[in-house]
Amino acid sequence: MITRLSNYFLKTLREDPAEAEAEVASHKLLVRAGYIRRQSPGVFAWLPLGLRVKGKLEQIVREEMAAAGAHEVHFPAMLPREMYEATGRWEEYGDALFRLQDRHGADHLLAPTHEEPFTLMVKDLVSSYKDLPLTLFQIQDKYRDEARPRAGLLRGREFTMKDAYSFDVTDEGLAESYQKQRDAYERIFTRLGLEYAIVSADAGAMGGSRSEEFLLPTEIGEDTFVRSAGGYAANVEAYVTPVPESLPIEGLPAPVVYDSPDTPTIDTLVAHTNAVLKREDGRAWTAADTLKHVVLAVTHVAGELAGEREIVVVGLPGDRDVDMKRAEVVFAGCDIEPATAADLAKHPGLLRGYIGAARVAADGSTTAVLGTESETGVRYLLDPRIVPGTSWVTGANVDEQHVAYLVAGRDFTADGIADLSDVRAGDPAPDGSGPIETARGMEIGHVFQLGRKYAEALGLKVLDQNGKLVTVTMGSYGIGVTRIMAVLAELNRDDRGLIWPRQVAPFDVHLVATGRDAGIFETAEELAGTLEAAGLDVLFDDRPKVSPGVKFGDAELIGVPRVVVVGRDAADGIAEVWDRATGEKSKVAIAEIAALLSK
Amino acid sequence: MITRLSNYFLKTLREDPAEAEAEVASHKLLVRAGYIRRQSPGVFAWLPLGLRVKGKLEQIVREEMAAAGAHEVHFPAMLPREMYEATGRWEEYGDALFRLQDRHGADHLLAPTHEEPFTLMVKDLVSSYKDLPLTLFQIQDKYRDEARPRAGLLRGREFTMKDAYSFDVTDEGLAESYQKQRDAYERIFTRLGLEYAIVSADAGAMGGSRSEEFLLPTEIGEDTFVRSAGGYAANVEAYVTPVPESLPIEGLPAPVVYDSPDTPTIDTLVAHTNAVLKREDGRAWTAADTLKHVVLAVTHVAGELAGEREIVVVGLPGDRDVDMKRAEVVFAGCDIEPATAADLAKHPGLLRGYIGAARVAADGSTTAVLGTESETGVRYLLDPRIVPGTSWVTGANVDEQHVAYLVAGRDFTADGIADLSDVRAGDPAPDGSGPIETARGMEIGHVFQLGRKYAEALGLKVLDQNGKLVTVTMGSYGIGVTRIMAVLAELNRDDRGLIWPRQVAPFDVHLVATGRDAGIFETAEELAGTLEAAGLDVLFDDRPKVSPGVKFGDAELIGVPRVVVVGRDAADGIAEVWDRATGEKSKVAIAEIAALLSK
Question: Name one GO biological process term (chains A, B) (predicted).
Answer without folding.
Answer: prolyl-tRNA aminoacylation
